[in-house]
Structures are given as C-alpha cells and as structure tokens.
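Quick review question:
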C-alpha cells in the first residue's frame, strides 16, 4: 500500500538553522524508509538573506524541486519569508509560521517598511498555524533551538516514529547540543505547554 508522500518547503533567513532542520527532516524520512530529495537556495544566507529548501518525500522521488502550488506544507521561520514563499502551498495545504519578525536590510536602511498586514494575507492560503517558538527557545536558554522546536511542530503532521526523529537529531546536531535539541524537539512536538501554544488562524 502506498504511503503518504510529502512535499515540504522550509524558508526563513540566513542564520536561523534552516539547512540543519532540513537535514534532520531528510534523515528522519530516510530512516522511515522513504526516498528523499532536497534542494537548497541559500541566497545571501550569511548576511541574513532569504533561504529556501525544498524537501520531497515519497516511495520514489525523481526531482528535488517542488512546483509552485504543490507543497503540502510550508514551514516558515519568519513571517515575511512565509509571505514571500506562500505561493508554493497547495490549496488546503498547511503552513506553520514562526510568529517572529526579522527586519531585512531594506527595512533596516529605511528603504522599505516591514508589512503590517502579513497575517491577513497569509490567512487566505490553506491552514495557517502561528507558533511562538522564540519564547520556548529563550526558556530553554538558547535562541538557536528555534529551528528544532519548529521541526517538532512539523513532526505532528508527518507521522514519523519518535525514534527516527531522535536518531536524526543525534546524527546531525553537534554532540554537546544533542540533549538540548532533543528537549527542544519534544517541546515543539508536544504542541501545547504552559509557555508554548499553536494558534490556528481562520
């Protein structure tokens, strides 16, 4: 019997750990027995520029690229980047959006303004879940765990075994940060705690 396939777009800005998150995702899918292909566009990643990764998961994948309007899930690490790439989401798809604003260089220099109506625009596309991952990361004492927290949220929609995710984290995260990131993943996967919630916008 054919299993569910997933086309996933992960986007954000350089320095948010998007590539690491996509590597963990691919590794977990591989451990689940899927064929996996990934494509990355870094842009000016080292300077806070836009970063997007395509991850395709199926019994057999022939191309790493996802066509516009065909992504099952968009995982966005920042709201403006979510709006930039939401056109990849299929009708009735799911978007998980980190409820955080990171001002691009054009805004910092005064050449442009950060949009104020992002949520209203995003809410016109599929099912949108806003995640306050920053506060969870700060509670854990390391803002760099935001990527793994968001990956934990994503895991709720994929149905992979917990041991696949844990193994993937251990294999891809530096040894001294493994335990911290396992906790961060669990925080995201639990979806609701006293300090963390997912809000679905209709």
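Suggested answer, residue by residue:
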């Amino acid at each position: 019997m054919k299993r569910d396939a997933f086309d996933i777009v992960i986007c954000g800005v350089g320095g948010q750990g998007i590539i690491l998150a996509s590597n963990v995702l691919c590794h977990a899918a591989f451990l689940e027995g899927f064929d996996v292909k990934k494509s990355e566009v870094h842009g000016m990643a080292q300077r806070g520029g836009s970063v997007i990764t395509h991850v395709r998961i199926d019994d057999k994948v022939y191309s790493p690229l996802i066509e516009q309007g065909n992504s099952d899930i968009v995982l966005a690490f920042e709201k403006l980047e979510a709006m930039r790439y939401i056109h990849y989401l299929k009708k009735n798809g799911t978007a998980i959006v980190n409820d955080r604003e990171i001002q691009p260089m054009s805004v910092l220099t005064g050449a442009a303004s950060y949009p104020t109506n992002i949520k209203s625009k995003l809410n016109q596309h599929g099912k949108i879940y806003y995640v306050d991952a920053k506060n969870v990361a700060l509670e854990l004492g390391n803002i760099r765990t935001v990527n793994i927290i968001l990956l934990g949220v994503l895991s709720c929609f994929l149905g992979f075994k917990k041991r696949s995710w844990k193994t993937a984290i251990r294999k891809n995260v530096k040894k001294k940060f493994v335990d911290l990131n396992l906790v961060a993943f669990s925080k995201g996967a639990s979806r609701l705690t006293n300090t963390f919630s997912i809000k679905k916008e209709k």
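Why it works: Helices lie at 18-31, 79-85, 105-108, 118-122, 133-140, 146-155, 162-172, 178-190. The mean pLDDT is 88.
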